[in-house]
From TrEMBL:
Residues 12-333 form the Enoyl reductase (ER) domain. One of its GO terms (cellular component) is cytoplasm. The keyword NADP applies. One of its GO terms (molecular function) is oxidoreductase activity. Belongs to the zinc-containing alcohol dehydrogenase family. Quinone oxidoreductase subfamily. It is found in: Cytoplasm. The keyword Nuclease does not apply. Homotetramer. SMART domains: PKS_ER. The lineage of its organism: Bacteria, Pseudomonadati, Pseudomonadota, Alphaproteobacteria, Hyphomicrobiales. This is Zinc-type alcohol dehydrogenase-like protein. Pfam families: ADH_N (PF08240), ADH_zinc_N (PF00107).
Length: 339
């Protein structure tokens, strides 16, 4: 089967950074689905894992943690899906990724694909939807169905993939959303997605929030990096919560967090699959919720750019655009060449 892989960790402008290869087709076991991949999306995690380092892989390593496709075959213990089902999922860091024609993935982290979306539109959603959903509703404890309506949420990194679906989920839960963006196109993007207020993260944020008449916000999600930690701590309300998806070597002073009795949460959507946690099936449930909300018209895809076909050249281009740090929404790549 066709696949895109790496054996060395090289700068993205090196033509060998990602390679077109041929690999054996895998066979499903246990609760595995064998999925015929129709579209994939690219995330910052792909570029971070591919980033230059001295390691060399003995066998080609397949990246990719966002896919939409059709179930080709199932393992003997599968109960949630059957061959022919259209699905979408983000996958598992400990297993080969989605940049291949056929992929094995545990059914407990897979959802039924939104019927109203193309495969490319669906592939743009899983990793970011799981991340934002878990960050808001599992880590910060916000009520998904509106019991916390009217509370304020600041999303730092509003125009990225996670922020783009996060704005929609937060608005659906009834929150007042402040989202950061700095360029005209990203400001327009977050407003289009439903942000109530836009904060320029390239300028002092505390003053901008206070100018809105908001002294403190109830919740903060850091969806880019930790450069804004001090401002987040200043803005969080006493006994509020901050969630971050970024690991960092930057200083994170905690004195004011302690004084405010504020909580800090870490979100990594791969944790459940990596550790086979007892609640792993929550990702199946939340992806099915996302699909239902999409099909009912309450949420929309965050796809901004679609490339085709799925090959090394287009994946290198997607990595290149993400590494520039100027992308908004998601980049998806659809279809393997028939040849």
């Amino acid at each position: 089967m066709k696949a895109i892989a790496l054996t060395r960790y090289l700068p993205i402008d090196d033509p060998e950074a990602l390679l077109d290869v041929d690999l054996p087709r895998p066979q499903p076991q246990g609760r595995d689905l064998l999925v015929a991949v129709k579209a994939v999306a690219v995330n910052p995690v792909d570029t971070k894992i591919r980033a230059p380092k001295d390691a060399v892989e003995e066998a080609p390593r397949v990246l990719g943690w966002d896919a939409s496709g059709v179930v080709e075959a199932v393992g003997p213990d599968v109960t949630l899906f059957q061959p022919g089902d259209a699905v979408f999922y983000a996958g598992d860091l400990t297993r080969p990724g989605s940049n291949q024609q056929f992929q094995l993935v545990d059914e407990r982290i897979v959802g039924h694909k939104p019927k109203s979306l193309s495969h490319a539109e669906a592939a743009a959603l899983p990793l970011t939807s799981i991340t934002a959903y878990e960050a808001f509703f599992h880590r910060l404890g916000i009520d998904r169905d509106g019991a916390d309506a009217g509370q304020t949420l600041l999303i730092i990194g509003g125009a990225g993939g996670v922020g783009s679906i996060g704005i929609q989920l937060a608005k659906r839960a009834g929150l007042t959303v402040l989202a950061t963006a700095s360029r005209p196109e990203t400001i327009a993007w977050v407003k289009e997605l439903g942000a109530d207020h836009v904060i320029n993260h390239r300028e002092p944020m505390v003053e901008q929030v206070r100018a809105l008449g908001i002294e403190h916000v109830d919740h903060i999600a850091i969806f880019n990096d930790m450069r804004h930690w001090a401002e987040a701590v200043e803005l969080i309300r006493p006994q509020g919560g901050i969630v971050s998806i970024d690991d960092t070597d930057l200083p994170m002073p905690m004195e004011l967090m302690k004084t405010k009795a504020a909580s800090l949460h870490w979100e990594l959507m791969f944790t459940r699959a990596m550790f086979q946690t007892p609640d792993m099936i929550e990702q199946h449930r939340l992806l099915c919720f996302i699909a239902d909300q999409i099909d009912r018209g309450f949420l929309r895809t965050t796809l901004d750019t679609e490339l085709s076909p799925i090959n090394a050249a287009n994946l290198r281009e997607a990595h290149r655009r993400i590494e520039r740090g100027t992308a908004k929404g998601k980049i998806a790549i659809s279809g393997f060449d028939a040849a």
